[in-house]
Amino acid sequence: MSSAVVSTSAAHGRPFVFDVEDVAEVCPQPSAAELAEARPPQRVFYASTDARLASVTPASRLAVRPAPEMVSSGIAAMDVLTGGLPRGCLTEICGPASSGRTTLLLAALAAATGRGECCAVVDASDALDPQSAAAAGVELSRLLWVRCGENSPEKSLEQLLRATDLLLESGGFGLIALDLGDLPPQAARRIPLTTWFRYRRAVEHTPTVLLAIERQSIAGSCSSLLIKMGSQRTEIKKSADSQFLVPTHTQLLIELEITAELVRSRQERKPVRSTEIMFTSKTAWAG
Questions:
Q1: What is the CATH number of domain 70-228?
Q2: pTM (predicted TM-score)
């Protein structure tokens, strides 16, 4: 009988003697039959599974999602830039004060009511002027004005979100505009991204044009169209030229030269390049 000597670092000078045959009995080698039994079972694909896999459409054969219907914004130059306003989508119009946000809003409302559609404006700051809207061509009989002019921006924002949910659930509106332009950006950014996602899903597959008027973009990837507004030059008229006796330091606004930049458009298959247009907005008394 042979033996083997094993020495470990834990027991220097104290070798352990094992019998080789005893070791073989403690750790026996498995036989070929035992190895075959220990193998994992092979997967078997039946004809029914193959049929289900064959019914799955590959991604390369999926139909392209149809483009939404586009309607006029009421400004010809804007329609050339964006192709119009998409139905069933969220469109953001952002820019600082006196950048043409209200001009584009009133033009879109005039175009929508001119098509015979009912529209709604959820006004967070009670800033809409009905007389200016009528002068811009808006049919006030087809316009629902929701006024959220509370003392604090937080309460106004809460009323705006609640009213928007009710309007989207009721349906029947060709255009719904959320006017957040006069709210501080930090207050407007309190709207969770999930709310914008819910609004986008609510108008999807409907003929409603959803507009968000803001100082800065806050809806992120939930908006299908993002337009950045700005003003370059203003034309004023000094009241000294008037026949009325008025202070010489007063001035009268005549018109604004407005620029619009297409920042994002999800209707295009390729990224949108920065493109700008310019149009003029004149006051009603300027003729």
A1: 3.40.50.300
A2: 0.72
